[in-house]
Amino acid sequence: MFPYIPNTDENIKDMLKAIGVPSIDALFEDIKLRHKPRSFNIPEGKSEFEVIEHIKRLASKNVAGLIPFIGGGYYDHYVPSAVMALASRGEFYTAYTPYQPECSQGTLQALFEFQSAICALTEMEVANASLYDGGTALYEAVMMAGRITGRDKVIMDGGVSPIYRKMIRTYTSNLHYEFRETPVVHGQSSREEIEKLLDEKTAAVILQNPNFFGTIDDHADVIEKARHLGALAIESVYPISLGILKTPGAMGADIVTGEGQSLGIPLNFGGPYLGFMATRKKYIRKMPGRIVGETTDRNGQRCFVNTLQAREQHIRREKANSNICTNVALCALQSVIYMSLLGKQGLKGLAQLNLDKAEFARREIEKIEGVEVKRSSPTFNEFTVYLPVDASIVAEAMIHKGFAAGFPLGRYYKGMEQYMIVAVTEKRTKEEILGYVKALKEVLA
Amino acid sequence: MKLIFEKSVKGRQGFQNPRSDVDLKAGIPSQYLRKVDCPFPEVSELDVVRHYTALSQKNYSVDTQFYPLGSCTMKYNPKFTETVAAIEGFCNLHPLLPQLKQGEKFVQGALEVLYHMEQLLCEITGMDRFTMQPMAGAHGELTGAMMMAAYHRRKGNRKKYVIVPDSAHGTNPATAATAGYEIVSVQSDQNGVMDINDLKDKITDEAAGLMVTCPNTLGIFNSEADKIAEMVHAVDGVMYCDGANLNAILGRCRPGDIGFDVVHVNLHKTFSTPHGGGGPGAGPVGVKKKLMPFLPISMVDRCDDGTFYLNYDYPDSIGYLAPFYGNFSIILRAYAYIIMAGEEGLREVSNHAVLNANYIRQRLKERFHPAYDRLCMHEAVFSASKQAERGVHAIDIAKYLIDQNMHPPTVYFPLSVKEAIMIEPTETESKETMDRFIEACFQADDLSREHPEAFHGLPKTTPVTRPDEVKAAREIHTNYFQNR
User: Fold this and answer.
1) Does the beta carbon of B346 lie under 8 angstroms from any beta carbon of chain A?
2) Close Cβ partners of B476 (under 8 Å, ≥ 6 residues apart)
3) How many residue pairs bridge chain A and chain B with CB atoms within 8 Å of each other?
4) What CA–CA distance (Å, rounded) separates B344 from B341?
5) At what angle do helices B45-56 and A105-122 cross, to 10 degrees?
6) CA A406 from centre of chain
7) In whole angstroms, what is the distance from residue B226 CA to residue B196 CA?
């Protein structure tokens, strides 16, 4: 018996009688004999205990205990206990999209706070209530730039995550966009190449800070040039870095997106994550996704509602800004709890700590003979290492020494087979870093 | 209630970062630095705990209230799936690990979950393969529509539009538009299913496909679905099944057997992963053989030695859809739910979902006008037309139910039903709960006769009364800092 169905035999009898049918089968009269399943072979059910044991056995087939120096846009940050303790409360967990605001003020206010925190982080004017992940958020930003400018040419900096760039290409394959990619020079966006391509047909320039190689840039000059030609600047950011780094708002970006996984969400082998988007107030009607707005109720009391819904699919159908419906509200909640716990000083301290540990690791790694840290511009908590041999072989050997050593770039960048990006978060101890360096020396020896 | 930002006190902290053990303070040139510290709230952990606990208490949820929100399948989410999702070997697994050389060796357990889940979903829906990447139902629709476009491009078909019924969920037309298609709408007939004659007029060689929910959004299974599939296939169109309502037909029929070429499944509906106040969900998409070459990469395949690997060798693939392998921890919860239910459990789910919906339909129809007076599947759709004549609209009844400590049904959807009230009790609700709901609906009807004006100030028991939505849209106040 499946334990989540409360109907007893007596209940079933009573209900069938009320309905006026002889059996449950009779309720399915519209499904004709010819529609019957050709097969339906699902293994016999299990008890809760058996299921958990089964899944623990599967989990044990993953290699546990690797010390992670791997990032690539997805980072091993510590998640304070209070985050899940609060976000997993049933009242949040088992509610749905706040269609009825009077009995959804908890979710609505939390999402308003989330939007406010994203605005604070990015120094932008408005934010939405989340998108699926950083990659789909960037795709939505491209679509939004197209709607605002009426143009279809998009310039993508080669420092933007190659995973995101691939995703954008997938989503726009049936639409009329022209994409041009520009190289990264000395770790930063190539001004020269971007300027060559920028013209009056350009809808947007897509940038990322820190970029995929870990280097920091100030894109204010590029953004200014784009603005001059009526193109929008889209900046993809890493939230933790904004504890100390110049914000996309200060650089003058028009649309900001990012992956919020680092804000209190576990790595979860790829999801769920947290896409966010912020923009200028004047573009809010062109923004996709749910937006929570403040208003008052009949007694003049402050309250919150989903607002500007005329942008959305349930009202505008094929003319909507996006087809998005369910987003990742719970991840947004986790992140706003995380951001509140960190607070102003905590975020700044965390960013500095990441910077310090990465700097320590960089200096130690650089001491290894034959290894070079590519660093013509400053980095945050991830940096690019040049190895004397193929990086993928080094990464494999390092796993056998207990380290996820980094992400080799050859997979996404031709000609960079000897490069690897290495991430160092606040969780890495001095001892782990020194152990890593020792292991790397042995592997290269 | 104050915002967390309004509880901020300068100098207070809610969390201690790890101590630095590297004895070094790194600097960055000032041009790259932020000028003003990020104004996150300065609060203690207890402040945060009280704040979000108090906020949670302002929500209605499945754990606290009956939540018969039609088309959303708000069933109970068993707690053990949370235990499963928190298992260390899964929740801290980095998604780039299998992309290292020989990296798949280190994540065999996770790949096995994805592989077996795919097999289970294929068996449940009658499809040949599934991608786990889509991160929600609408995202699944987009995946399906892009594969549809890739299929036609590959065959050199010149297709212009996608057909959707007038009862379709808004995501269907929005999705087809995002995939580059125009939309053609088909009316419902007097039985609540697609009007075959209208459909015949609209199927031409330029039809890329038909997107339809099965059972449909009126809670009705279209017995002609297989015949419609033949009509669509006759012009080489693709039959897309929006699987949002799969909860009604588990073990009774499979979209793949009745002619659908693509189906998406909302794991957060049928397979009981938590709705989270609006996600995260997961919307895996299944296809028949003819669409398999276009599936997003990567796919999880199995080597001869029984090990699992990520296969990127699909030259006609539409490409990367998610950054990695989908919302893994949601898929894991749904996997746990399915293997616990087993074949019998899944059949029971649909049996009781449909029994409960029909019980409500039969009991309510003496007072409320049924959109279609016939047996339904997992949900029953009514029109508050009789009450509206008394000046009491579907939204007023919804607000009344909030005061009876129940989440209201879906209202004003589907758009093809005037004053629509769409009720989906799900299989996890008891007869006593449903009887209380029916009683509350009857009381609402009584009140609409006796004191229709009494609805105007409702709800009264909630932390706030009806919000001024016009003001929200006019003033656009979406950020605490905007006026500061």
Assistant:
1) yes
2) A126, A281, A284, A293, A307, A308
3) 706
4) 7
5) 140
6) 19
7) 12
**B39-79, pLDDT tens digit by residue?**
999 999 999 999 999 999 999 999 999 999 999 999 999 99
From A256's Cα to the closest Cα of chain B, the distance in A is 15
Q: Tell me if A349 sits within 8 A of B20, measured CB to CB.
A: no
For this complex, say whether ipTM is above 0.95: yes
3-class secondary structure, A18: helix
Query: What is the least distance, in Å, from the CA of A223 to any CA of chain B?
Result: 15
> Are residues A279 and A176 part of one domain?
yes
pLDDT (tens digit per residue) in A241-288: 999 999 999 999 999 999 999 999 999 999 999 999 999 999 999 999
The CA radius of gyration of chain A, in Å to the nearest whole number, is 25
How many structural domains are present in chain A?
3
Which tokens is B24 given?
Answer: 């070094």
3-state secondary structure of B380: strand
pLDDT, mean over chain A: 96
Domain B84-339 fold: Aspartate Aminotransferase; domain 2 (3.40.640)
User: For residues A174 and B312, what is the distance between their CA atoms, to the nearest angstrom?
Assistant: 21
Residue A321 binned pLDDT confidence (cut-offs 50, 70, 90): confident
A361 and A237 inside one domain: no
Give the one of B56, B67, B342 whose C-beta lies nearest to A43's C-beta. B342
> Inter-chain contact B328–A270, Cβ cutoff 8 Å?
yes
| Pick from A109, A105, A331, A298: nearest CA to B60 | A105
Q: Which two three-digit tokens encode residue A112?
A: 């308003």
What's the token pair of residue A121?
A: 């982080």
Task: Tell me whether residue A61 is in a domain.
Answer: no
Residue-number span of the structural domain to which A382 is assigned: 67-78+348-444
Is position A58 within any domain?
no
| Structure-block tokens of residue B175 | 């999705």
Q: In a 3-state reduction of DSSP, which class is residue B427?
A: coil
d(CA B236, CA B233): 5
Q: Smallest Cα–Cα separation from A429: which of A68, A73, A80?
A: A68
Nearest to A107 by CA among B52, B74, B277: B277
Segment A334-358 mean pLDDT:
98
**Cβ neighbours, 10 Å, residue B15:** 23
